[in-house]
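Quick one: RNase H type-1 domain-containing protein from Cuscuta campestris, structure tokens please.
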Amino acid sequence: MGAHHSLRSVVSIWWAQRPRSRMLSFLFHRLPMIILWELWTHYAACKYGDARPNFARIIFRVATAVSECIYRRWPSGGLLPPRWSVIMEHVRRESGRRRVVPIRWDPPPDGAVKVNVARAPLRGAYAAIVRDSTGKFLYAISSIAFRWDPVERGGMDVLLRCIQWCISQSFLRVHVESHHSEFDCFFREGTPWYLHDVYARLRFLCSTATVQWFHCDVRANGPTTELALWAVDSTEGMREFTNLQDLDIRVRSLLSMDDLPFFRIDEDGGNP
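--- reply ---
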């Protein structure tokens, strides 16, 4: 019992550390389990088999397992030899890499339109904005969901109206984009039973047009989020916009600056 408590304390102290490097953090989470596994298998081989205690072999097997873990997660670097000096040098070298990633609204391909959908934080208001490949404003809609409706239904009603509008205007290639992952389930099987009618409507629309789903960064969805926030204070319920000048000035200002990027710094060269 005392040994178990001591081991748990050591592992807790180890896991309490928060390395900034993505690769080092990856190894920090796995190394204790790899060491314990190799100790246990070696102990079992000695107790129940004919093996003899060999700490050098344990260290070698741990290094081999760590090398294989790194290779499975980052295969582009190749399989490292099971030597700690080589492994740690590789980790230090990769941890120093950084990549500056611009974040902006990306226009759809020529001939397609993009529908951005957003929800007001902690509110039941939704909005969507449609733009073409040049970034030109085409259509927008905002709505407040009824209190007794599921939250997702308000967003899907807004999205379906946008897709219907696109089809009515002969835009048959539609890219749907949002930073809310809740919309993702509607573009694959497995929606909740109480939303099957909405899913059926979306499937029908997708059969008459090419509709694709994309996830974006929250900072690339600023104008749509601002329109959803505007809808919270509006008393009009659902409202459609076909003229840019009818939008709130805050939304228009964000639309005009939507091609100016934010920047994110990825550690480890942006490796996943």
